[in-house]
Design a protein that fits this description.
heterodimer; A: about 250 residues; mainly alpha; Helix Hairpins; 8 helices; B: about 625 residues; alpha+beta; Nucleotidyltransferase, domain 5; Actin, Chain A, domain 4; Substrate Binding Domain Of DNAk, Chain A, domain 1; six-stranded mixed beta sheet; about 35% helix; about 25% strand
């Protein structure tokens, strides 16, 4: 399962933007630069929607400013008195804008989205997927990152023990403290991975500039691996939280 | 145009208000009794007439079985999820209620759905506004708790339709409040709006940036408010009475209503004084008397007030903000007058809350601001734009009864997601989709929104059809679903069964039913329209008198016009619209020659080479007939 934002109209890129339906004068994208009217949505990817190159370093201040500017042009509030067709377009355009902003603003989602545009399906190791697999009897691909194998094994044992204790209505403060400590470490590891990901972004953007296919594929695979590890840790932290909070 | 005036409505659990933008600032429109607040109470009087607001309050005590309050608690809900409410509130459900049917409440011998009862309140507000403007009001912005789900929002929209209002937008209450706040204090920064009303609690965290009001996170509890404190106090009083006086009054509607009134007064008193005295006269000459201190009250109310802490912390967490990053905590809702609530907000956000706004009115005022924005804006609202979020995640039930979330909570709306479906068996023509709202993993723990049946899928082998379903949450926070079979390009037909709500047909039926009660409204509207027209013709006549053509009328003609004018002036303030119309027609006829003369003089003036400006003929050449063209007041 991919995250929802990556499902819509990602792969189609519009070649050219047509003339404004209303005044016909200007080449128009989301709204007409001449008369300001909203345009029917053209399927473009989220980077293109903001007029950004398909690169991973995004200036968040610029992104926010663009988001606000486009909101002021596309939001349904501005078309409350327009005809039904324009209202419809504004609704679609602004939902596309919001979906795009939400995706690009978050470093992990942005990377996942770009990888999907590149044709990579990430293993979504979500809890939903786990439950689904459990329900259908399928075996879910859940690769433990090798460098975490030992830690994960131990943590799972401890979690099992705490679950058992909780069922009996007791908890061992020492065990809780130990699990808490490991959780903290895992969270730190997530941070480290994020920093690593940012370094990969630079490589990706450089490869995009140089046009080197080999470099591009190399960094792509690096990022896929990194995100899979990060997702794995994220789910682990979620499991820990669940046991600790229940 | 006056008839296009859009009002802002706060449809509250305890009180409702209607407001509009007067020039640069929003103001509340008072009712006929001069009061800004219309209590959200609906009663059926002896003659089976619907009574709303202050006038209905006495029925709560006199004929509790013919009156209802706090109906907002039942909006968009099913029988199975109001069991708690039924223990605490004197709601009387219809006896013949079928499972899965929309709730119906008994008022006397008649039954009404919650949207219909809310529509009575809305109609009263509409009437107040029409009386105030002396013009019909047909468009409104209505506020809802931010944490309202799809069904509750839909029910509110239905109520608007039943009341004869076009609901241009549902705005979240805390967000509306922030608009009123932001209009006042033009400042950038992050604010938290803490809204504890009669029956609902919301917390919204917003970023204000050069006129953009961007909600970052919202949370809440749609069944938490001052009502809960009242119910607690009622229960204690009933226990006391049973213990001290040996009377069990819990089933005595009249006594409970009397006690409720008294404890509410005590609660309000304790916000400004350290102690108060409860003194309730019971039937049979008995009295219940008790001294209550603020300290005791706070101890009792603390567990209820504390229930707001969880949502606040969650909202901060979702916004990825620490309390010290909140630059202002704005208080909204009557229950924030309670000193203990203020103290809690201060603890939560580590600063003294902003209490300058009238907590009862600010939501309606904000709705009025949004109404102007939707109407095209004004100098005061220039650059103001609200970017709100959906409070709850939207999900789809997948194999194993698990929720697959497709739009996460706190996503800016409009928001959309696309899902692909296929068939399981050869030639399968239908696919069922179950849409859920909520944060829980299991579908059965989430709120069922609707079941969609995709129909008419072209016959293909299993797994071949590729049906793309688009889910879109609009700016009202309401879900829309569309589907397309991608291989055939056919628009798939969707049949929606709302889990808790009225179908379109039902709403249409209620609109028709409402005419039973709306006869009064209709008549009133006719009067208002006729009065407007009278105003127009009289104004045009005034202009005609200033024109040179006037002097060319004979004395008799002038006398006749004066007589007709006087007649119209006399009937125009009366309630009989046919009389007003007749007088208008008469004056119209009587001024025909004046109109012709004005036209002539305009023409001859033009022939003499004068410009139209010099020719004294009012509003330009089109003003030939004084009635045909005149400004609308």
């Amino acid at each position: 399962m991919a995250s929802p934002e990556t499902k819509s109209s990602a792969s189609v890129v519009a070649e050219a933007t047509p003339a404004c339906w209303s005044c016909g004068t200007m080449r128009a994208e989301h709204f007409c630069h001449a008369c300001g009217k909203v345009q029917p949505p053209v399927p473009v990817d989220y980077f293109r929607f903001f007029g950004f190159p398909r690169k991973l370093n995004v200036d968040l201040a610029v992104l926010e400013r663009e988001f606000y500017d486009l909101s002021r042009k596309l939001h349904p509030d501005l078309y409350a008195r327009a005809d039904a067709r324009e209202q419809e377009w504004s609704l679609e355009q602004s939902s596309l804008l919001n979906d795009a902003y939400r995706t690009l603003k978050d470093p992990v989602r942005r990377t996942q989205y770009l990888l999907r545009l590149e044709g990579v399906e990430l293993e979504e190791q979500s809890k939903t997927a786990t439950e689904k697999a459990r329900a259908t009897g399928e075996i879910k691909k859940q690769v433990v990152p090798p460098d975490l194998l030992e830690e994960v094994f131990e943590l799972n044992m401890q979690l099992e023990e705490l679950r058992g204790q909780k069922k009996m209505g007791e908890d061992d403060p020492a065990l809780i403290e130990e699990i808490g400590k490991q959780k903290l470490e895992l969270e730190q590891k997530q941070e480290t991975l994020l920093e690593e990901l940012r370094r990969d972004w630079n490589e990706w953007d450089k490869a995009a500039d140089s046009g080197s296919e080999a470099e591009r594929l190399a960094v792509r695979d690096k990022m896929v691996d990194l995100l899979n590890r990060r997702n794995y840790i994220r789910n682990l932290v979620r499991d820990v939280n669940e046991v600790l909070e229940n | 145009m006056t008839s296009d005036r859009i009002v802002g409505i706060d449809l509250g659990t305890t009180n409702s208000l209607v407001a509009y933008m007067q020039g640069e600032s929003p103001v509340v429109i008072p009712g006929e009794d001069g009061s800004n607040l219309v209590p959200s109470v609906v009663a059926l009087d002896e003659r089976d007439q619907i009574i709303v607001g202050n006038a209905a309050r006495k029925y709560l005590i006199e004929t509790p079985e013919r009156s209802v309050y706090s109906i907002k608690r039942l909006m968009g809900r099913g029988v199975e999820d109001i069991q708690e409410e039924l223990k605490l509130f004197p709601f009387r459900l219809a006896d013949d209620l079928q499972p899965g049917e929309v709730l119906r409440i008994k008022l006397g011998e008649r039954t009404f759905t919650p949207p219909e009862i809310s529509a009575f309140i809305l109609r009263q507000l509409k009437r107040n506004a029409e009386r105030f403007f002396n013009a019909p009001v047909t468009k409104a912005v209505i506020t809802v708790p931010a944490y309202f789900n799809d069904a509750q929002r839909q029910a509110t929209k239905d109520a608007g339709r039943i009341a004869g209002l076009e609901v241009l937008r549902l705005v979240n209450e805390p967000t509306a409040a922030s608009l009123a706040y932001g209009l006042d204090k033009k400042q950038n920064g992050v604010v938290a709006v803490y809204d504890l009303g009669g029956g609902t609690f919301d917390i919204s965290i917003l970023k204000l940036h050069d006129g953009i009001f961007e909600v970052i996170a919202t949370n809440g509890d749609t069944h938490l408010g001052g009502d809960d404190i009242d119910n607690l106090l009622i229960r204690i009083a009933l226990d006391d009475i049973r213990g001290d006086l040996g009377l069990d009054l819990s089933r005595n509607g009249e006594a409970v209503a009397t006690i409720r009134k008294a404890v509410i007064e005590a609660k309000i008193a304790l916000s400004s004084q350290p102690a108060t005295h409860l003194d309730i006269e019971l039937s049979g000459g008995k009295r219940y008397q008790r001294e209550i201190t603020r300290e005791q009250f706070e101890q009792l109310a603390q567990p209820i007030i504390d229930r707001t802490v969880g949502p606040c912390k969650q909202a901060l967490k979702d916004a990825k903000l620490k309390p010290e990053q909140i630059e202002e905590a704005v208080l909204v809702g009557g229950s924030t007058r309670i000193p203990r609530v203020r103290a809690l907000v201060e603890e939560l956000f580590q600063r003294k809350p902003h209490t300058d706004l009238n907590p009862d009115e600010v939501v309606a005022l904000g709705a009025a601001v949004q109404a102007v924005i939707l109407g095209g804006g004004s100098a005061a609202t220039e650059n103001m734009l609200l970017l709100d979020v959906t409070p709850l995640s939207l999900g789809i039930e997948v194999a194993g009864g698990v929720t697959d979330k497709i739009i996460l909570r706190n996503s800016t709306i409009p928001a959309s997601a696309t899902q692909h479906y296929t068939t399981q068996i050869d030639g399968q023509a239908n696919v069922a989709i179950h849409v859920l709202q909520g944060e829980r993993e299991l579908a059965s723990d989430c709120r069922s929104l609707a079941r969609f049946d995709l129909k008419g899928i072209p016959p293909m082998t299993a797994g071949m059809p590729r049906i793309e379903v688009k889910f879109l949450i609009d700016a009202n926070g309401i879900l829309h679903v569309s589907a397309r079979e991608q291989r055939s390009g056919k628009e798939a037909e969707i049949e929606v069964q709302p889990s808790y709500g009225l179908t379109d047909d039902q709403v249409e039926g209620m609109i028709l039913d409402s005419f039973d009660y709306a006869e009064e409204d209709f008549r009133r509207r006719q009067v208002i329209e006729a009065r407007n027209e009278a105003q127009t013709i009289l104004a045009a006549l005034e202009k005609g008198k200033q024109s040179p053509a006037w002097s060319r009328l004979t004395t008799d003609e002038k006398k006749q016009i004066a007589k007709l004018e006087k007649a119209l002036n006399r009937v125009k303030s009366e309630e009989d619209y046919t009389a007003i119309r007749q007088a208008i027609d008469a004056l119209n006829q009587g001024t025909m020659r004046l109109a012709e003369l004005m036209m002539d003089s305009a023409v001859s003036t033009a022939l003499k080479g004068k410009t139209m400006d010099e020719a004294d003929m009012g509003e330009g050449p089109a003003a030939g007939h004084p009635v045909a063209k005149a400004e609308f007041e």
